[in-house]
Amino acid sequence: MHLCGVIGPTLLQVATSKVERLMNLVIALLSTRGYITADKIRSTVAGYADSPTDEAFSRMFERDKNELRDLGIPLEVGKVSSLDPTEGYRINRDAYALPDVELTPDEAAAVAVATQLWESPELTTAAQRALLKLRAAGVDVDPDAPVAMTSAALRPGLRGSEQVLSTLLAAIDAGQAVQFPHRSSRAEPYTVRTVEPWGVLTEKGRWYLVGYDRDRGATRVFRLSRIGAEVTPVGAVGAVTRPADVNLRAIVAEAVTAAPTAVRAQVWVADGRATALRRAGTPVGRRRLAGRDGEVIELDVGSADRAAQDIAGYGADAVVLAPQSLRDDVVARLRAQAEMSEVST
C-alpha cells in the first residue's frame, strides 16, 4: 500500500521538512532487503544529513521512530547480518500492508484512474530519488519493494503539465475543441494547433492526448510534455464527440512504436557508485574525472527526458560525456535542484 494510506492528518499538520524526512525514512525502510543501520540512514536518507552533531541526529531519529510507531507503522529492530551484530531497522511489510479490499466494478474503475495518476512520474519523483540515493550508497534495495521504482531510463515527469492535463480533461468532458502551442521536439519552435480531444492516456510512463487535428485534417497523438501551458477551449460545448470505433490505446501504441529509435550516450560513472546505471550500460573504458577514478559506459537512450532525470539523480557520481544535448539537460536539472535547495535553506 502507499504511504498516504497510513500517514494521516497527524503528519500533515507538522512542518513540511519533517513530513518529507519521515516519508523518505519509510521509503528506505520498506525498500531494503535487510536491516539498515542508523549511520547508513543518516548518510543516505534525505533530511538527516544536516544534523550538526551525532547527538542531534540521535535525538531526531529517536523522535521519528517513535512517531512512526505511534502511527502504527511496524518498525522492526534487528542485526544487520549474522556476521555484523550492529543494530539496524526495517519495516515489516506483511504487517504494514492492509488486507484485501472488495470493490464494485465502478469503484475499481475509479481506483484504476487514481492509480494512473499516482504512478505518473510527477508523483513518483520523490520515491525514485530516494531509492536511487540508497542504491548509489550501496544499500541492497529490493527490486520488488512496494514503492514505485524505475530502470536506468526513468519515466519523464509530468512536471509543468499538470494544468495542461486538467484543462484537457475538462474539455474532453465538455465535448469542446482546444487550441494550444505544440512542438515536435525541444529543438523545434511552437506552432498553434486546433484539436478535437478524444482522450488522454499513458503509454510506457508518458502522457498523450489523442484527437482530431483540424489543422492537419487527421487523427494525431500529442505528448503532453510537448504542449505549451496555454491550452484554450474553443467552440461550442458538446460539439466534439469521440467516434465510437476509435481505439485510443491502439492509436497511441502505434505512434509510440513509430517514434525515433534510441540514440547512444556515453556516461562516466564513479567507481563503486551508481550501480544500477552501470548495469544498464556497456563499459567502454576507464577515465579519471575531477580527481576521481571511474568507468565510461555506453547505453541506449530511448528518451532524453527519462535518461536525464535518471542520471541527474546520481549527482556527481554520473557525468554525461555525449551527446551534448543530454549533458545540457542533466546540468540544467542539477542547477535547478541546487537552487531549490538554497531556497529551502
UniProtKB/TrEMBL annotation:
Residues 163-228 form the WYL domain. InterPro entries: CBASS_pafABC_assoc_protein, WCX_dom, WYL_dom. Residues 262-336 form the WCX domain. Pfam families: WCX, WYL. PROSITE patterns: WYL. PANTHER family: PROTEIN PAFB, PTHR34580. This is Protein PafB. The lineage of its organism: Bacteria, Bacillati, Actinomycetota, Actinomycetes, Mycobacteriales. The gene is pafB.
